[in-house]
Design a protein that fits this description.
The complex is a heterodimer of chains A (463) and B (619). Chain A is α/β, with parallel strands linked by helices and 463 residues long. Chain A has 13 helices and 17 strands. An 8-stranded mixed beta sheet of chain A has the order 9-13-12-14-15-11-16-17, sandwiched between helices. A 7-stranded antiparallel beta sheet of chain A has the order 1-7-4-5-6-3-2, with no helix packed on it. In chain A, strands 8-10 form a two-stranded antiparallel sheet.
Chain lengths: 463, 619
């Protein structure tokens, strides 16, 4: 596109984050607009509707106190870009990529558009490498693999950030390859940011991390940019610098609320619960930026965190997210109340790419059967618990009583690991130990071959 | 989807020549061959996936247009005065007011001919591999890759001779498209006449292999507008089931070839796994898999896995019978809407050759959302949940393109298009408009249930909600080809599951120990049925595909177990002494048995069932 910039004095109208500009010359969709008002720092905007008569500009910063008639708007002819590079590691930026750690702005190794193009599906590599997070409920039951997008579905007051921090500190690349973290805070509180930062500093994770912080007090509109700015950096690290990148985004719910706010300002027809009808597509343009490409060493793995309003998993935010991401890790208020950390409810949790990342040479040969059996028995135990509240524990069938006992131990010992980091082998061994508390005939999902192998390896109770 | 080299349709129009690199020229009216009116046509507005352009008084609805300096593909969807509203199939970022727009004179078409099998196309028919050669790892707008490979020569064997009179659908000759797969070259639906010249030999898709008396060249490929239904001679009722290789569908909810199934399910209920299992194992000659607004990694998995998998019916790689249409969730929305039509048009083309084609669309909700998104930008008055009021109508038209038919032309042949559409209802709530509209036109419902998925009961098909309208229609085939008792087996299984549900409700209130022995046996037998017959692991190489004989055998044994249990109870053996666990174990082993151990393990299971009430007696 041609790079001639054009300046105009005075916007015709303003509403929320939007400015309406009269006749412009060849405005392009998505081009960056510089907004200058005498006596104020320059603002940035973006053309979201280009027309011969009216051009709509979305201001990407706080519009409080902006006098539209006195502003000079310059259409730059360029799409929004951001500086990316390895030198950004260890640094802290705001949602639009300006440094907030007191250091000068980075020059960067490259300048990238923040609205990333979609990966060509035929250039994608199918994710299949296990990431050991050190968390049993994830490694054992809902395995995370490289290039996956696996969100944490949390509820208000549940320790999602603590779990994310534990994963960031504990995550290991299988062969010790270069590894980096890109953390994006969207609309979270200063206290939450502080907690996260302190853990980062203490664990030494900071030097291999880039942080983009948009706190609750920062402009709403920046929330829409922050994940994209961060992903431009993540993509550079992964596909140019050959680094395995884990992107943690907290909290997607704030992002979606910002999206709704902007859509309302644009007087769009709302979809479910007032969220715009294109929210699925919009979220996909973030989540689908996870992946691995042929011919590149690095990868982008995403661990977005979202808060389910009122713990409702059918709310549009978790619902649409679940349809895009490759599974979900769901936190449980009930487990949290009982002091189980991390309080992961494994039943509604799922990792769609688990099968590709587990098994012989990756985790354990029997991993699939083992986890199926744990799931089956735990499900039975949970159902038995429900039934016991009606008929009493003594009214249960013997197998159900055994499953109930198993479920208690599974929750307290397997799920409730606290902050201790378990290797995958410790996780598998612990799972076996719990399975062996019930007789062989209760273990229908374990094949004879697997059972025999287990017995030979020295485990297993006598028949 | 380029007009390069396809002089038959798009290239023949009076579209002005606008090349890249001329973008700094303020006016394009100097372009040779352009009419004054169309050369002035320029973008007046861009918003999201829509562009408005004018003046274009000669535009027609659904005409394909080239938008802007990068010549993005678009389609006219509304005309008001001489302003056209265009939905653009590519990323519109950077599109500028004032850039030129040109008409192509034709609707969105797909090039049909040899070379489709094994291809991976985007929503408007461009091969993604060639797009990657043009624009790299990330998709940039403006790629011009053509659907079929014009450089490849195919060995054509003519079956008609000069002087023969041919009409639409007649087979002119054949090409071996993939090893063992014959691609019949047919007279396109709108042509016919006496054959003037024809010759066998190697041809590219652009080189005529013959000519009709009126001078119409005969080629291996032709273009077809994707939104138009390909004509057939006669629609037929089908009695042949569409065998899926999944026990729960084949046994309880079979569909006929040419049927249309909806598979709604909340996230994590396994829609995609089911669609992929069908694509891999269903008894179809050709499979068209449409990934519509879904995940990129899933498509990577398909692309990685399908070439390695073998089609059990032919022993050839599954990819050889597959056409993939891929428009992931982050690719342009307008092309998501067309991708489903594109897939159906390709399916109809292979049906016309006389093949049994299956179309898997994952997911139709994303298609409907694309309609909604475009509709909202057009400021149409929305219907239920913001979907356009014509949603049901469009869905109906789509589903009606499935069917079994006697196709047009000679030699006489029949073909079928079976349509399996996944739906992603918000919140897993089936009362939403897309599911409901689809149910009105579908011949079967395979409803997925999150509760079953949480219990890791896969496929997580809710046998109480699901139904089929084709059970009667296909019954004769099953009794004739699989087993005389098929009808009873199906009914008995359903009755057992129904009784189980009632009893479980009671057991939840009073505790299982309080039930009668016969009722406790029902619970146990139903559990075995759920685990062994209905449950099937997509990750177990021995069980991912269940031949219909195996389905019959497992279902029969589960019923035999139930009957043996009843007999024992009648003989006075108390329930506690029935060794159900051993029988369950033996059946589970049979479920996962390799083909060469099937007989041995079946005998063992039969023995365990016979021994059900005897252990204590022997001891």
């Amino acid at each position: 596109m041609s790079l001639v910039s054009r300046s105009y004095r005075g916007a015709r109208a303003a509403a929320g984050p939007l400015l309406y500009l009269g006749a412009t010359h060849r405005a392009a969709l998505g081009e960056t607009v510089a907004i200058d008002v005498p006596g104020r720092p320059a603002l940035r905007g973006q053309v979201i509707d280009a027309g011969e008569e009216v051009t709509v500009i979305q201001v990407l910063e706080e519009t409080l106190g902006l006098p539209p008639a006195r502003a000079t708007l310059t259409l730059t002819g360029e799409a929004a870009t951001v500086a990316v590079g390895r030198e950004l590691l260890g640094r802290i930026f705001n949602g639009v990529g300006h440094p907030i750690d007191g250091l000068p702005a980075p020059v960067g190794e490259s300048i990238r558009p923040i609205w990333g193009a979609p990966m060509n599906p035929v250039r994608r590599v199918s994710p299949a490498d296990f990431i050991e997070t050190g968390v049993s409920s994830i490694d054992g039951m809902n395995t995370l693999v490289r290039g996956q997008k696996l969100p944490v579905f949390s509820g208000p007051g549940l320790p999602a950030l603590e779990l994310a921090a534990q994963i960031v500190e504990g995550a290991r690349a299988p062969r010790g390859e270069p590894f980096a973290v890109v953390f994006v805070a969207i609309g979270i509180t200063a206290r939450e940011t502080q907690t996260f930062l302190e853990r980062f500093e203490k664990s030494g994770a900071m030097e291999r991390s880039v942080l983009y912080l948009n706190e609750a007090r920062d402009p709403t509109i920046e929330r829409l940019l922050a994940p994209r700015v961060a992903l431009a950096q993540a993509e550079f690290l992964a596909f140019e610098a050959g680094i395995h990148v884990l992107v943690v985004v907290a909290d997607i719910t704030h992002y979606c609320e910002a999206l709704r706010e902007i859509a309302t300002a644009r007087e769009e027809i709302p979809g479910r619960r007032g969220y715009p009808g294109y929210m699925y597509t919009d979220l996909a343009s973030i989540f689908e930026r996870a992946g691995i490409l042929h011919g590149h060493d690095g990868s982008v793995t995403q661990l977005p965190i979202l808060t389910m309003p009122d713990d409702d998993i059918t709310h549009p935010i978790p619902d649409l997210t679940g349809y895009i991401t490759e599974g979900q890790v769901v936190l449980s208020r009930d487990l949290h109340r009982r002091g189980v950390f991390p309080p992961v409810d494994v039943l509604p949790s799922l990792s769609r790419l688990m099968s590709a990342g587990i098994g012989r040479g990756k985790t354990a040969p029997e991993h699939r059967e083992w986890s199926n059996q744990l799931y089956a028995l735990y499900t039975q135990g949970r159902e038995a618990r429900l039934m016991a509240t009606i008929v009493g524990e003594t009214g249960l069938a013997a197998a159900d009583r055994r499953a109930l006992k198993f479920a208690e131990r599974f929750e307290n010992e397997f799920l409730g690991q606290g902050t201790y980091r378990r290797t995958i082998h410790e996780t598998i061994e612990l799972g076996w130990k719990l399975l062996e508390t019930v007789p062989r005939e209760d273990l229908l999902r374990i094949s004879d071959a697997t059972w025999a192998a287990r017995r030979q390896a020295g485990g297993g109770s006598p028949p | 989807m380029t007009d390069r080299g396809s002089s038959a349709t798009t290239g023949g129009s009076a579209a002005p020549e606008i090349r890249r690199g001329e973008d700094e020229t303020p006016r394009l009216s100097a372009a040779p061959g352009a009419t004054a009116a169309s050369s002035r046509a320029h973008i007046t507005r861009v918003s999201g996936a829509l562009a408005e352009a004018g003046p274009m008084p000669e535009a027609s609805l659904y005409e394909l247009v080239r938008v802007g300096e990068r010549q993005l593909l678009g389609e006219v969807i509304r005309i008001a005065g001489d302003t056209a509203t265009i939905q653009v199939y590519e990323d519109t970022t950077g599109l500028r007011v004032g850039e030129a727009v040109s008409l192509t004179g034709s609707a969105l078409t797909i090039e049909l001919g040899p070379g489709l099998l094994g291809a991976t196309l985007d929503g408007v028919g461009r091969p993604l591999r060639r797009i990657a050669e043009e624009t790299g790892d990330f998709i940039q707008p403006g790629a011009t890759a053509r659907t079929l490979d014009a450089s490849r020569r195919w060995k054509f064997e003519a079956v008609v001779r000069p002087g023969d009179r041919v009409s639409a659908g007649d087979v002119l000759g054949t090409v071996e498209e993939r090893p063992g797969i014959v691609h019949r070259i047919m007279v396109p639906p709108d042509q016919g006449g006496a054959v003037a010249r024809v010759r066998s030999g190697p041809f590219t898709i652009d080189e005529p292999f013959g000519e009709l008396a009126d001078g119409t060249p005969l080629r291996l490929a032709h273009r077809w507008p994707v939104r138009s239904v390909r004509p057939v001679a006669r629609r037929l009722r089908s009695h042949q089931p569409f065998l899926t290789g999944q026990r729960i569908f084949d046994l309880l909810f079979p569909v006929a070839e040419g049927g249309a199934v909806v598979v709604p399910g909340g996230f994590g209920t396994g829609k995609t796994v089911i669609e992929q299992s069908l694509a891999k194992f269903a008894a179809a000659d050709i499979v068209v898999y449409v990934g519509c607004g879904e995940r990129g990694n899933e498509m990577a998995e398909v692309l990685n896995e399908f070439p390695r998998l073998t089609d059990p019916a032919t022993g050839r790689p599954v990819i050889d019978r597959t056409v993939l249409v891929v428009n992931t969730s982050n690719m342009p929305v307008a092309a998501r809407e067309t991708s489903v039509f594109l897939g159906i048009a390709i399916a109809e083309y292979y049906r016309d050759m006389g093949y049994r084609v299956a179309v898997m669309a994952d997911s139709l909700s994303r298609w409907a959302e694309a309609l909604r998104e475009i509709g909202a930008r057009l400021q149409e008055m929305p219907g239920e949940e913001g979907y356009p009021t014509y949603l049901g109508n469009r869905l109906g038209k789509l589903f009606e393109r499935a069917g079994r038919a006697e196709v047009a032309g000679r030699p006489p042949r029949t073909g079928a298009v079976t349509f399996v559409a996944a739906i992603s209802p918000p919140g897993g709530d089936f009362s939403e408009p897309v599911t409901q509209a689809a149910l009105r036109v579908a011949s079967a419902l395979w409803a997925l249930d999150p509760a079953l998925a949480h219990q890791r009961q896969f496929p997580a098909v809710d046998w109480e909600t699901s139904y089929t309208l084709a059970a009667e229609q296909t019954a004769a085939w099953f009794t004739g080809n699989v087993g005389k008792d098929w009808g009873e087996l199906r009914r008995d299984t359903l009755v057992l599951l129904q009784r189980d549900r009632e009893l479980r409700d009671i057991a939840a209130l009073i505790g299982p120990e309080a039930l009668q022995d016969r009722d406790r046996l029902v619970l146990e037998a139903a559990r075995v049925t759920r685990e062994v017959v209905l449950g099937q692991s997509a990750y177990d190489p021995n069980d991912e595909r269940s031949p219909i004989e195996k389905t019959h055998r497992l279902a029969s044994l589960a019923q035999a177990l139930y009957r043996a249990g009843l007999d024992a109870l009648d003989r006075g053996v108390p329930f506690q002494e029935l060794d159900v666990a051993a029988a369950r174990h033996a059946l589970m082993a049979l479920r996962g048995a390799a083909a060469d151990r099937m007989e041995e393990l079946a005998a063992a299971a039969r023995q365990a069932i016979d021994d059900l009430g005897r252990r204590k007696a022997a001891a």
